[in-house]
Automatic annotation (TrEMBL):
It holds the Pfam family Lactamase_B. Keywords: Metal-binding. This is MBL fold metallo-hydrolase. It comes from the Bacteria. The lineage of its organism: Bacteria, Pseudomonadati, Pseudomonadota, Betaproteobacteria, Burkholderiales. Residues 12-171 form the Metallo-beta-lactamase domain. SUPFAM superfamilies: Metallo-hydrolase/oxidoreductase. It comes from Massilia agrisoli. InterPro entries: Metallo-B-lactamas, Mito_Persulfide_Diox, POD-like_MBL-fold, RibonucZ/Hydroxyglut_hydro.
Length: 249
């Protein structure tokens, strides 16, 4: 499998490129609209044709690149069925893998950050979206999030994976790239270290996080597979123009 981890610095989002050496097809997990040119250039450099975009959830901090990439390449869009993204070509369901050449992507419904959030298991790697971050997790106070539900998702589905499974999150804010299930069980200060659900509930309730800057534009735009509003306030206009270069890509 051809693999690239690509970083978008505005929302600190990781996009993952997975390419099949057998067929030359590829998929992108969590593409971002501002880095679509970069992603297409990387696909061209590797000699790959984009077959699918796959989002882990309806994002609140950036606009997905799914719709624009479909317009430009003819690829198809996959999204978690519980998120109710009507424009997706394939509503993904747990227990129904998506295969691209030799790549088999196994969806895992991991609600809690959002009610329809999915993680994706590919061989010895799991792409955890916002459900499990390196030494952290996504917030649970909007989009039908729930701390008890997230605790259950992580412990019952993600922490049940083999310890050496590599963890690739949707975001990192400290220049970290990869973890493992063993590391998160041992070190994650919110969900690991033997934390109880009661302790996790208290941690999440005490975060007192500000209202997300871009959520009122991102959520409706991502429900349409990635549509930027015509006019953004000056303080938010960086979220939609193309970015051809970024760290790790």
């Amino acid at each position: 499998m051809i693999f690239r981890q690509l970083f978008e610095p505005i929302s600190s989002t990781y996009t993952y490129l997975l390419g099949s050496e057998e067929t030359g097809e590829a998929l992108l997990i969590d593409p971002v609209i501002v880095t679509q040119d970069r992603d297409l250039a990387e696909l061209a450099r590797l000699g790959l044709k984009l077959a699918w975009t796959v989002d882990t959830h309806v994002h609140a901090d950036h606009i997905t690149g799914a719709m624009e990439l479909r317009k430009r390449t003819g690829c198809k869009i996959a999204a978690p069925a519980p998120e109710g993204v009507a424009c997706a070509d394939l509503p993904l369901q747990e227990g129904q893998p998506l295969q691209v050449g030799g790549i088999i992507l196994r969806p895992l419904h991991t609600p809690g950050h959002t009610s329809g959030h999915f993680a994706y298991l590919v061989g010895d790697r799991v792409f955890t979206g916002d459900a499990l971050l390196i030494d952290g997790c996504g917030r649970t106070d909007f989009q039908n999030g729930d701390s008890d539900t997230l605790y259950d998702s992580v412990h019952r589905k993600l922490f049940a994976l083999p310890d050496d499974t590599l963890v690739y999150p949707a975001h990192d804010y400290q220049n970290r790239h990869v973890s493992s299930i063993a590391q998160e069980k041992a070190r994650n200060p919110r969900l690991g270290q033997g934390k109880s659900v009661e302790e996790f509930r208290a941690i999440m309730a005490g975060l007192n996080l500000p209202y997300p800057n871009f959520i009122d534009y991102a959520v409706p735009g991502n429900k349409q597979c990635g549509v930027c509003p015509d006019h953004l306030p000056d303080n938010l206009n960086k979220y939609c123009p193309p970015m051809t270069h970024s760290p790790q890509g």
